[in-house]
Amino acid sequence: MSAPQTGEAASPLQICRIMWPDDANVAGNVHGGNILKMIEEAGCIVGTRHCNTQNGDRCLAALVRVEKTEFLSPVFIGEVTHVTAEITHTSKHSLEVQVKVMAENILTGAKKLANKAALWYVPCSLQNVDKIMEVPPIKYASAEQEEEGRKRYEAQKMERLETKARPEEMMPSPPNPEDPPKEKHTVGFSQSSLIHLVGPSDCTLHDYVHGGVTMKLMDEVAGIVAARHCNTNIVTASVDAINFHRKIKKGCVVTVTGRLTFVSNKSMEIEVLVDASSVVEAEKGKYRAVSAFFTFISLDKDNKPLPVPALKVEGEDEQRRFDEGKVRYLQNKEKRLSDKMRGQ
Amino acid sequence: MSAPQTGEAASPLQICRIMWPDDANVAGNVHGGNILKMIEEAGCIVGTRHCNTQNGDRCLAALVRVEKTEFLSPVFIGEVTHVTAEITHTSKHSLEVQVKVMAENILTGAKKLANKAALWYVPCSLQNVDKIMEVPPIKYASAEQEEEGRKRYEAQKMERLETKARPEEMMPSPPNPEDPPKEKHTVGFSQSSLIHLVGPSDCTLHDYVHGGVTMKLMDEVAGIVAARHCNTNIVTASVDAINFHRKIKKGCVVTVTGRLTFVSNKSMEIEVLVDASSVVEAEKGKYRAVSAFFTFISLDKDNKPLPVPALKVEGEDEQRRFDEGKVRYLQNKEKRLSDKMRGQ
Amino acid sequence: MSAPQTGEAASPLQICRIMWPDDANVAGNVHGGNILKMIEEAGCIVGTRHCNTQNGDRCLAALVRVEKTEFLSPVFIGEVTHVTAEITHTSKHSLEVQVKVMAENILTGAKKLANKAALWYVPCSLQNVDKIMEVPPIKYASAEQEEEGRKRYEAQKMERLETKARPEEMMPSPPNPEDPPKEKHTVGFSQSSLIHLVGPSDCTLHDYVHGGVTMKLMDEVAGIVAARHCNTNIVTASVDAINFHRKIKKGCVVTVTGRLTFVSNKSMEIEVLVDASSVVEAEKGKYRAVSAFFTFISLDKDNKPLPVPALKVEGEDEQRRFDEGKVRYLQNKEKRLSDKMRGQ
């Protein structure tokens, strides 16, 4: 993917920082969620900067979608991550940012590609957060490049509409700690929730949570589910496309729930649902803000993949979700294979 | 403790999260203060949500008291703690939340009861923090249950009044660095302070410090005192009832001081005093915001209690505090014994 | 300052990130201490990376000195700071890193120079933290450039030796709470301390506190002193050279104390002393780890400097420190003037 020609404001941006103990699990692996948070921070900067290069209200680039992304190699405490973000397509009201994450071991000098992602942003006016601003167009290196971008734009637009039309997956009922323990390796056994009260330090320029903060929580709950299922060191392998349906405001309570949907020999697919409700405006009720599928793998001490225990599926709903997960798994596998054969 | 019948808003709330290295001491034991902070977060959410189910100003449930609580089993890094909070009594202007903490080893599946606590909250208007709102009543399962709640309410109210009436314990004079070093195992030897500037992340919906943040600092200083006295791995065993006399605002400097008051064969009682002062409104002076007694024990490598070095008491004041501590120690011991005999 | 020719490993490094509410004071001004922390993180990365390009033990670049630095313009929440670090001189056992901080308003596109700093690092073996490794030499663009670097190296070396030889300034005696309150605008009135327990998230690759973490605490306490003296919005204007005499290990309690030494019409000089002591090895006693002079100014609502109340000096020691501070103030003023005339 070569970059389109862009003006100064749309020029690539690089974020980098040392990974601290707080960023990693006990095995020293940096959480995928922290990588996603850095990716989103870079995307938000480059997008916001670009959308403010015209007259009109000041605005903030708000994340509406992250395309499917894979974690290509693990990152460790003490390594330096370099996140490069670049605007690669603009439509009238949205823009695409492509992001690359390199991890550098500053002791050995070794560098590796850790992640590649594509994010879609929409500029929201800071005066009125519901007003979507126009996006200044970028220049493309070639007509082909522009055309490819347009195709990606159309594809994600359709997919986002579809997701909206789909009946909302019921929120799983939280397990009562006094219930008898579930049978091991069932869906109910590993289902988990995190609940977080959105505070000022989750927000910057307006009073809404950054998409990166939400993704970090989602990855955290998916990690708990995966660890419960296989009792080993687990890491994020990939995340399916995430759509951010609705914004989450400061003062909301966010419930992030994860449950296994599908398990292959060496991977687990976890569905994560994010529901928000205002603490002080209870009458507004809970609403679904985000949902996504995370894939985790289990690693041994040398960071080699371990087999994963089979999932004990119970009931029709679990079976349906399992079958749907299997379809996604096989599609991804096929796509990886064909990408490889095309030498990509 | 069976739950009263409640509407949706008063329904139990469950918070859960993984314990990180930052939550624990070097031996891997999660600080009691972090458990207290989670307990308070759950209580604040469930209380705030309930108090906003009626018309009138939006309000926040502010912590005014935590009943005596015991740490029943140690929690370790990597474990998942589940905190369940439920409103169990309401008076006109306050409500009681009972909280239970389970710790789960997600690798082995083992669960244990880590803590049980009862907290009292008062709803403060977000428009005017000094205006106390009314609390919507909950429904009780039985008249007995309501009656028991009322008794707990009256008991804590009396105790809070008593604490207010008691002459304020003078802040221990900080050690003068030019003095010769104190003798080991004296009160002065292990007396410690932490001083912290209240920042945005210590507060959430209004500009006041969460009770949980204060309790975490209190536990931290008590841990330093205990470690200085016995030079071993120490953990929080219990905390006496804590009354939150006055609120602490963002921008205040908080001085948290701990000193040994009493030492038995296997436990240390540490008095912790919290004083706050505004940085920019010096004329208001320092004020005592909170005070409490923490009990710590010393553990060997297998988490078995170790003997604690005797306390060298110097002067009348230290002797008086030692004798008062001994009374509390014997009362607690007796109470634990009678609870046990009643099969609780 | 033009850059020397350097190999890949010594190439400039750029760190950048959004400023969050937690990074700033209530007026929205990002704390100078957070800028210093980012500067040190960039310096540590570029230094560590360079020192590991040779055979021998893996090592970490440990901060030993920061040259006098000025905060040229305020930075605000939501702005993006870009920190560029570059190795500009190497001696056998130390290296100089020059760092530049640009702040960018991503809404308006405005950029401003926020800080320029020079830091000295020494590579410590990760196997044995007391073993100082050799620094691989860099290539210089010209003999002149090398010569200038050598002069800076000699100058800072001499100054560090001098600081060591100087009798250690006694730690200011903490105020006794039973004393009557101090008179306003005296040294004693605004003297302040912070006390912090060093945790895992203050350290990365080894178990010692990062210099940047210490500088952040120092700036925080200096800010409290300044706010107490003039009750207004205050910001860091400059920091005199800081020498890091001794390392601070995980598990230490750090006492950071600040007191006014000199006040001019529009600025305050605050001396900050950092003392560390191990919690469990009390016999080792407290030791002075760092000391420095911070200069703060007071700002009105439009970020224009306000007059500062005069300092009421009491006793010989305070007068001596005041006179010494005045000498530093006049020297700095003269230097700024001559720099200006040289058009630098």
Describe the overall structure.
Three copies of one chain form a homotrimer. Chain A starts with 12 loop residues before the first strand and ends with a helix. Residues 1-9 of chain A have low confidence and may be disordered. Chain A is built from five helices and twelve strands. In chain A, a hairpin with a 4-residue loop joins strand 4 and strand 5. By secondary structure, chain A is of the alpha+beta class. In chain A, strands 2-6-3-8-12-9 form a six-stranded antiparallel beta barrel. Chain A has helices at 32-51, 143-165, 187-190, 211-230, 315-341, and strands at 13-18, 59-66, 69-71, 80-90, 95-104, 111-125, 192-197, 233-239, 242-244, 252-263, 268-278, 287-299. The first copy, chain A, is 27% helix and 31% strand. Chain A binds chain B through residues 21-22, 26, 174, 177, 181, 184, 192-195, 197, 199-201, 220, 223-224, 227-228, 231-232, 250-251, 253, 279-283, and chain B through 9, 13-18, 20-22, 41, 44-45, 48-49, 52-53, 58-60, 77-78, 80, 82, 84, 100, 102, 106-109, 111, 126, 200-201, 203-205.
As an assembly, this protein is: homotrimer
Secondary-structure-derived class of chain A: alpha+beta
In helices, the fraction of residues of chain A equals 25-40%
Shape of chain A: globular
- Count all strands of chain A and give the number: 12
Widest sheet: strand ordering of chain A: 2-6-3-8-12-9
Strand content of chain A: 25-35%
Radius of gyration of chain A: 20 Å
Poorly predicted residue ranges of chain A: 1-9
